[in-house]
Amino acid sequence: MRRLTIVAGVLAGVVVLGGGAFALFHDDEPFTVSRYRAMCDKPHGFKQAAARSATQPHPVFVYGYWNVREDHPEAFGAGALDVWDPADPAKVQLVACVDTAGRGAFVKRCDYTAQSGPIDGPLGGPGGPTGNYSVDLYKTEFRVTLYAARTGARVATARFSGDRFGADEDENGDPCSPATVVHANDPRGSVREGTPYIRQIRDALTPYVTH
Fold first, then answer.
1. Helices (H), strands (E): how many in the chain?
2. Is 205:150 a contact under the CB 8 Å cutoff?
3. Buried-most residue among 90, 120, 194, 200 (CB within 10 A)?
4. What is the pTM of this model?
5. Partners of 108 in the beta sheet?
6. Residue 142, exposed/middle/buried by CB under 10 A (0-12, 13-18, 19+)?
7. Is the dihedral of CA 71, 74, 75, 78 positive or negative?
């Protein structure tokens, strides 16, 4: 049986920006690839972008669940980062917006044993009651909308199911984490929905980027 730690209390001072959030830039600010995020709030053309060429590949800026250069450059071959995560905004031909589209298929129920008592570390606070606890894992359905960066025209829409449940998870391993942390007031069962692997986003976009 896996171990569950019950945490009482809340973490203050955390600000979360949800869907629809956007950044404002002064006109004199240098144009960087991050400015293409605005396409996902209100599709429109960018004069700084490259026109969509008649030949492949089509370099793409991906907004949502995509930290390639910082976290996962190994997910692409040598030289491919300039296609899948361009650093130069003038090379971008496509903008891909990744959004959630609802809960997907059930994956697995993870069972834990709760242990009470004080919790050491920065969270502090007393533990919760002992007993059994479960977490139901579900895939999440994702939608990718692809736009031509230069014109803002919609190119395609693709869907895929995200089933990543841990930052360092082995794709072929057990999706249940060895331990989990919950609030002391949580019920005896909860639901967790998956996020995408970079591979899943890449595979959904491949027909439009490199083919």
1. 4, 7
2. no
3. 194
4. 0.75
5. 137
6. buried
7. positive
Tens digit of pLDDT for each residue in 14-40?
A: 333 344 444 555 556 789 999 999 999
Can you give the pLDDT at residue 55?
A: 94
Query: What residue ranges in the chain does DSSP mark as E strands?
Result: 2-7, 60-63, 94-115, 131-148, 154-162, 179-183, 189-193
Determine the residue type at 191.
Answer: V
Single-letter amino acid code for the residue at 86: P
* Structure tokens given for 188: 């005896």
Q: Who's near 44: CB < 8 A, 6+ residues apart?
A: 38, 152
Position 13 scores a pLDDT of 36
Residue type at position 125? G
pLDDT at 117: 53
Task: Please state the rounded mean pLDDT for residues 68-84.
Answer: 86
Contacts (Cβ under 8 Å, ≥6 apart) of 74 = none
